[in-house]
Amino acid sequence: MGWGTLMAYLFVPDMLVGRAAEFVQLANARLASLISAPEVKDSDRVFAFPLIDVLRAFAAISVVVYHVIEFFEWKSYPVTGFLLWFRIGWMGVDLFFVISGFVIGLSAFRRLDRRGPRQARAEFVRHRLARIVPLHYLTCLFFVAFITPAIMFSNGFWAQIVSHALFVHNLIPEHHRAINNVNWTLGVEMQFYLLIFIGVVWLRRAKPWLILALGLSITWIWRSVAFAHIPANDPVGVDALFMAVTQLPGMLDEFTFGLLLARIVVAPRGQRLLAAIAPYAWIVVAMAGLVVWAILTVFWMAPAYWTSWKMVVLFRTLIGVGAAACVLATITIRSRILLLLTAPVRYLGTISYGIYLWHLLVILSLHRVPGMTPQLALPVVLAMTFVLAAVSWHYFERPILRRYAHAVPK
What value, to the nearest 5°, has the Cα angle with vertex 21 and ends 19 and 26? Predict the structure, then answer.
């Protein structure tokens, strides 16, 4: 029964006779649906990790606040305490990549186990295209129309359109952050999907240590070569080095950590391990917190970033370790009370893709307002971004997913 039946019971007295027990059951069921993850089959419940959306929300908000601080040159923003995190909120992207490695790997491995390679790949492509492409195209359209309309009259406009449509804009210096600056990450993400499409069978069966060794080796070699050939002595050099080391080979370590967590979850031994440590989840959370604290301490103690080989080549691997620790801690928690308390935050995680793609349009629009201060801009940016993300999710993204993909969060 749905809300219509429930309202009928409330407002039609004749229907209330003898229905008290049924009404209680209905109310309890509705309450349970509100505080739990999207409904899943019993066979799938072991693979449901709704608190991952808390991490998604945190990552998205971290990026948003970081960009407000940077674009509005918020010099008085706190430099101590928890709020200091948002000065390095760009690390939210690294958290996103580890989460993506885990979630995409888990989905691909389970499809492979149930459907076989051919059908698994077909479903994977359909779902990923339906999830990523529409909002990317929509936000690019809005960005060009309302933020950078002059680009439509430039000589390279159609090349920009093609590169962004094909998700290769991150590979071209002139296109890297030309339309909706933050979507360079979508190029990296889509290229990771291509890697999964090609290598899912091997990634499902290979020894975890071999996957880790290859992921780290490729990443460290790529970053080392980039560091050796691109001097970062000025802003132009820093930008060029940033673009080089954030290509897929340079971020492969973070995706690899997520993939290995997915391998743990799909393995019977890994499932038994997670079940065994579930009663001690808060110890795992505390340990993850210590790992993150140690990594951030290393960052703040470093005298420089882009001119240090250790920082450019190795530090993002440490970020990946910290992010993986957070994901591991999150998937060990099985608390219905925590699900209830985090329901609003989990909703933000559900719409986090929209938060990420819409927020820069809002920031750049407000940046044009004379006298706009960062203190005033921040709450407005958050509110407007949340609204845009919610609207696009409910009336654009989710309908497309329902039509072209098998399942969608409610």
Answer: 90
Tens of pLDDT, residue by residue over 161-192, are: 999 999 999 999 999 999 999 999 999 999 99
Are residues 386 and 356 in contact, defined by beta-carbon separation less than 8 angstroms? no
DSSP string, 115-137: H-HHHHHHHHHHHHHHHHHHHHH
Tens digits of per-residue pLDDT, 6-28? Answer: 333 333 334 333 444 443 354 34
**pLDDT in the model for residue 45:** 60
Could you tell me how many residues make up the chain? 410
Around Cβ 67, how many Cβ atoms within 10 Å? 21
**Report field, pTM of the whole predicted structure over 0.85:** yes
pLDDT at 405: 76
Asked if residue 237 lies in contact with residue 230, where contact means CB atoms within 8 angstroms, the answer is yes
| Helices and strands of the chain, counted as H and E runs | 20, 0
The answer to whether 203 touches 211, Cβ cutoff 8 Å, is yes
- For 135, other C-beta atoms within 10 Å of its C-beta total 22
Alpha helices, H only, 36-181: 52-71, 91-115, 117-146, 157-165
